[in-house]
Amino acid sequence: MSSVRTVRRRIPIAYKFIAAAIVLLGAFVAAMVFGAADISVKDVWLGMTSDAVSEEILIIREIRLPREIAAIVVGAALAVSGAIMQGMTRNPLADPGLLGLTAGANAALAMTIAFGTSASYSFTMVACFIGAAVGAGMVFGLSSLRQGGLSPLRIVLAGSAVSAFLLAIAEGIGITFKVSKDVSMWTAGGMIGTTWSQLQVVIPCIVGGLFVAMLLSRQLTILSLNESVAVGLGQRTAQVRAVLFAVIIILAGASVALIGNIAFVGLAIPHVVRAIVGTDYRYVLPMSALVGSTFMLAADTVGRTLNAPFETPVVAIVAILGLPFFLIVARRAGRAFS
Questions:
Q1: pLDDT digits over 59-92, tens only?
Q2: Is 24 or 109 the better-scoring residue by pLDDT?
Q3: DSSP assignment of 237-286
């Protein structure tokens, strides 16, 4: 472990970001090329830079490009929101999918489909934001009922219970109002069917949330160390927590509204990133965005090519990779990859 840390210190941080950006670009090109349809790199280039029209170029512009852009923004949103939660709560197991945010957004989405079939996509996203806030509020409320404050174990247990409860509500609404198919199609956890009109609504929300998170990265670093230290340095911890919590709700809610409920991305990626750039959130947050985007692109590519022309759900691929990581982090009490 000490040799890993020595190598980490020797490599300039700028080189690490350049390497991460190059890997992200490679993952994007691979995602555009590989799939059920036979697409070449030349077709990808023409589809993105020219006005030419062909079957391959239409597939690129109307199917693959919007879903891979969705993978990039959602991967960044989930990874950054997970990093913020881990730093803000000082809980190595924190993740939007484990602490009720995505389950709350999922339940709100089911209600919107059942009661507002003609609702606009913007209204659906606002409903997901509200659901994410309610889910997280229930988790932290249950965790703080007993004396002793918010411990990582209590938060995780409360998150598991609340998530199961909210997912059951979503399933019950789907069965009662006979919209189970619509809810399942939307919340299956994948980028299939992503449209440009959806991206026009989601991208500004996620980009805005990421921008605010980067602005508060220094305050988050201080907050992640010690509450008394943050107060001693004159930080308004209550205001910083409120803004960061709003950012998490926006990022998680927008992600669920776009691709459904995907867990473990926000848990695993920040741990990997801290092994690369250290614990300074001025570097952790942007690197989490790059690595999270790359991970989601890779997961989507594997899902489309593993059993082509059929698709393997991205949520299954992410869970296969994320669950063992969760168990490792839980076993080592958060000391893994730090």
A1: 899 889 999 999 999 999 999 999 999 998 888 8
A2: 24
A3: HHHHHHHHHHHHHHHHHHHHHHHB---SHHHHHHHHHHHHH-S-HHHHHH
Task: List, in order, residues 6 or more apart from 334 with CB less than 8 Å away.
Answer: 91, 92, 93, 152
Return the pLDDT at 51. 83
Q: What does the pLDDT read at residue 33? A: 92
Spatial separation of the C-alpha atoms in residues 63 and 119, rounded to whole Å: 24
Q: How far apart are CA 123 and CA 36, in angstroms?
A: 34
Q: pTM to 2 decimals? A: 0.87
Q: For residues 26 and 167, what is the distance between their CA atoms, to the nearest angstrom?
A: 36
Give 333's contacts (C-beta < 8 A, 6+ positions apart): 92
Q: Which two tokens stand for residue 242?
A: 């409120």
**Domain boundary assignment for the chain:** 2-90+191-331
Please give the single-letter amino acid code of residue 114.
A
Superfamily for domain range 2-90+191-331: ABC transporter involved in vitamin B12 uptake, BtuC (1.10.3470.10)
Residues 9, 15, 17, 19: is their CA dihedral positive or negative? Answer: negative
What is the torsional sign of CA 170, 103, 308, 293?
positive
